[in-house]
Amino acid sequence: MKFKVFFSRISIYLRPHLGKLIFASFAMIFATVMETAIPEITGRIVDDLFVENRAKNVAFFYSIVLFGIFLLSAIFNLISASASSWISTKVISTLREDMFKKLLFFPKNYFDNNTSGSILSKLTFDVEQIANVASTIWLELVKTLLTVLILIIYLFYKNWQLSISLLIILPILAIIVSKSTTRMRSASSNLQAQMGNLTQSLNENIDGNTIVKIYEAQDYEKDKFSNIVNKIRQQRFKLDITAAINSNIVNILLGLCLSFVVYFSSVGLNMTGGEFLSFFTALAMLVKPAKTLIDINKPFQIALAAGKSVFGLIDSEEEKDGKDNIKIPLDGNINFNKVSFSYDGKKSVLNDISFKINAGEKVALVGQTGSGKTTIIELLTKLYYPDSGTIFIDNHNISHVSNKSLRANIAYVDQNSILFNDSFIANISLGSKKKMIFNKVIDAAKKAESFSFIDKLNMKFHSFIGENGKLLSGGQRQRIAIARAIYKDAPILILDEATSALDSKTEKLVQHAIDNMTKNKTTIIIAHRLTTIKNANKIIVLDEGNIVEIGNHNSLLEANGKYAKLIKDQF
């Protein structure tokens, strides 16, 4: 990312804190002016106290002045650092909130094409680098440039002949910065990419630690992780060694200047001890800011690379959304009209399919893996859009309907039972926390056969369930997901292997709850168990993205076609 673009983007986040940034800058300027007065004070101390006289009142005066300079400098540095930290943390918070808000509305294919590790790295590592430039480096740059400017002016004021050597050093420093920039920017981009891989590897091994153990894949995962860590080490070393080389070149050049000053001030120029000390101290004080100007390039290049990553995420296109707000609730009449779809634009997953589901009907989608069952659900819920054809609900073209209006009418239970590390109340009443009805939560839990095990816990419905419900059994997680759908009470209900994690006894209990829940609701079922689909009003049989049969259980068995074969093979 170019500096001009980066500055325009980050300035948006700094603008609300501009007053504090200006205040911090002035505090830093005042502290810098105090510090740059030290060479002149030390020179006068030498001449007035150690050459001319040692009067107590003069010594006391200089002692107070010297202490005052250090005290004021420390106070204003502290004020500046505090304001800088406040601004930096606010920028980080705002950036993360903006990034997270964007993530919530990204299309599903964004998550298909980006690993969770790379996304997490953007919100953690990358955003920290940007905020570092936003305030801390800015103030450091202000202090450094001002220090260099004041000291150079002072040096030329004290002795222009000795200061000529600086005119040789400054262009060399500019060349060093220019040459190192490209190398640092490349290393910074590579470092951020590898940090995403690191986070991804950690996520996979934390979530999949059971599989890793059972399949004895520890050595493989260890080697893979070590490879990533080594690449990160290499890129960090590349950054550090470039900065170190630059910094030490500056040391050599300034050392040459200091040596030049020592020789010519003692041999060719008539300087007092105080004048020499003032000049030498000022020149020595240039070493740190000069090195800082070089060193700042390292975090700055990291920040530019991070800016490309972070603002790239913020600028990513959100999922498409219709503008029509439909009445709530819908009746639930669904019509797929010649719908085709492919995930990659090449291989077709659905081929010109058409079917109707009347309001209140229970319809099952069956077929082998990859036949298109889940894709139909993803299109119906607008996670994807058809390549061609139209989907209607109650004669509304869903591509024109707002996502919020559409999804408010759909409840969904999938076989993975995605839960959140929150309370049972929050998970069951998901999406309605501000208007949550506790009695309705209890009723939903009872209908989903969840109340009995929740009520035994110390905090009951206020108990936390752990990351993705890891503190629960598979069957308990499934029942919480079912309770969530019961609580939503939407007119369209989607059940994707909703009872797959339940034992036979619990399945019978939950199936009764599902039967009650599906009354007067349009229900779409994806299931392999005969008990789940045999009572469906309609069964749609899919094969390689095509509808090959439609009918009820008995009629399809009599037809002795694809459905009958699936039943026979115990699909």
Put the structure in a nutshell.
By secondary structure, the chain is of the alpha/beta class. It has helices at residues 3-14, 18-36, 38-52, 56-104, 108-113, 116-158, 160-207, 209-214, 218-267, 273-285, 287-295, 297-315, 373-380, 403-407, 424-428, 438-447, 451-455, 474-488, 504-517, 530-533, 553-559, 562-568; strands spanning 334-341, 350-357, 362-366, 388-393, 396-397, 410-413, 492-496, 522-526, 538-543, 546-551. The chain is 65% helix and 10% strand.
Strands, helices and their partners?
Elements: H1 3-14, H2 18-36, H3 38-52, H4 56-104, H5 108-113, H6 116-158, H7 160-207, H8 209-214, H9 218-267, H10 273-285, H11 287-295, H12 297-315, E1 334-341, E2 350-357, E3 362-366, H13 373-380, E4 388-393, E5 396-397, H14 403-407, E6 410-413, H15 424-428, H16 438-447, H17 451-455, H18 474-488, E7 492-496, H19 504-517, E8 522-526, H20 530-533, E9 538-543, E10 546-551, H21 553-559, H22 562-568
Parallel strand pairs: 3-8, 3-9, 6-7, 7-8
Antiparallel strand pairs: 1-2, 1-4, 4-5, 9-10
